[in-house]
Specification:
Blueprint: H1 2-6, H2 16-23, E1 35-39, E2 42-56, E3 59-71, H3 80-94, E4 99-103, E5 115-116, E6 122-123, E7 133-137, E8 148-151, H4 161-168
Parallel strand pairs: 6-8
Antiparallel strand pairs: 1-2, 2-3, 2-8, 4-7, 5-7
């Protein structure tokens, strides 16, 4: 389902299905917050949470991150992703988490209250901000007094292409295609 949700979306092919495989075995993974959506016994969506942190000098503040949030293509634009996100944000709030920071679709997440991280004084590890780098306070002033650099678990960035390609062989073949609107590298 995750492979189909992201295939040829941002780049030719995708690596999100391999990320899920690795994340579920990573110490940062939070299975109690992660959720799968089903319809008639078929998995139609999923969201995967992990521990992350904001570092400012010696001060380290733990926050949540998630990804991927995936929805089966035939179920997209029907509220599945929104339900997964809203349900898990409530669970995170109840569990005492104060904020979520993500790299996500700039057109989608603001509908759920996310704003760019420059509003919080938080940057990427290399000091940058851009529209896809977003956050949300789960409680009032959840990021008050917190600034610095956001660090997600290494599993999100350590996805060597040869490993992705090898893992991808376990799934039905899909053609990698360069399409208009994909990210440039």
């Amino acid at each position: 389902m995750t492979k189909k949700a992201f295939w040829n979306l941002h780049v030719p092919g995708c690596s999100e299905h391999y990320l899920v495989h690795k994340l579920r075995r990573d110490a940062a993974y939070l299975p109690l917050l992660s959720r799968v959506a089903e319809s008639n016994g078929q998995v139609v969506g999923a969201i995967y949470y992990a521990r992350a942190f904001v570092q400012n000098g010696d001060e380290r503040t733990e926050v949540l991150t998630f990804g991927p949030l995936a929805v089966e293509p035939s179920f997209q634009k029907q509220g599945v992703g929104s339900q997964l996100l809203e349900t898990t944000m409530d669970l995170a709030r109840q569990a005492g988490w104060k904020a979520i920071l993500i790299y996500g679709e700039p057109e989608y997440y603001p509908k759920h209250g996310f704003i760019t991280c420059d509003h919080f004084g938080i940057t990427t590890p290399d000091g940058k901000n851009f529209p896809a780098f977003q956050g949300i306070e789960l409680v009032s002033d959840g990021l008050k007094g917190i600034s610095g650099q956001f660090h997600e678990p290494d599993v999100y960035s350590h996805l060597p292409q040869w490993e992705v390609d090898q893992y991808d062989r376990l799934f039905p073949y899909l053609e990698k295609r360069k399409l208009p609107g994909q990210w440039t590298t």
